[in-house]
Write a structure and sequence with these properties.
The chain has helices spanning 2-16, 125-128, 140-143, 155-161; strands at residues 40-46, 55-59, 69-79, 82-87, 90-94, 97-105, 109-116, 131-138, 170-172. The protein has 173 residues and is α+β, with helices and mostly antiparallel strands.
Length: 173
């Protein structure tokens, strides 16, 4: 019995200790600051009409991950070449009701549209014609793990927080 226990002990010793060879050469360093995802930003200018049902839908190419987030900002003012952006939805009050710019998105498209309790064809031309919006895609890998929260209503804070270069924004038709 003693010999069997000794045999099990020796076999166990060999089984639970692995062989180790020499350490391999170090691998190459990755690119600094390359998080493996790309923030995207683009701009659309559109007119809301009866023929487009007071909204437009745009394809996302490439498609986004189901964890990504889309933010849309309306250009509300330009003063001394400084743009002021407001996060959608953006509500406007008229004498006889309200209207708002709003948006929706999925993995392969986004839409910008007007919601209103007014007849849409009665909205002022300045409200429906040549409106400019910035669309910011924030990858879920960053958005969902963000420790220091950002004020998403502040376009400039979002651009800074997620290191987005908005100096050469892609324009969509």
């Amino acid at each position: 019995m003693k010999k069997i226990l000794t045999l099990f002990a020796v076999v166990g010793l060999f089984a639970f200790t692995g062989c180790e060879g020499p350490e391999g050469p170090p691998g190459q360093d990755g690119q600094k600051g390359d998080p493996g995802y790309i923030n995207e930003i683009f701009e659309v200018t559109l007119s809301f009409t009866n023929s487009n049902n007071y909204g437009m839908t745009y394809e996302l190419d490439p498609v986004i991950s189901k964890t990504d987030n889309v933010l849309v900002y309306e250009l509300v003012n330009t003063n001394d070449n400084i743009d002021t952006w407001a996060l959608l939805p953006q509500v406007y009050y008229f004498n006889n009701g309200t209207a708002q710019y709003n948006f929706s998105f999925s993995f392969d498209q986004f839409s910008i549209f007007i919601d209103s309790n007014l007849a849409l064809n009665t909205l002022p031309v300045s409200f429906t014609t040549n409106k400019t919006f910035r669309v910011v895609i924030i990858p879920g890998a960053v958005y969902n793990k963000s420790v220091n929260k950002v004020d998403y209503s502040d376009y400039n804070a979002v651009i800074k927080k997620y290191n987005i270069d908005d100096s050469n924004v892609k324009k969509l038709n």
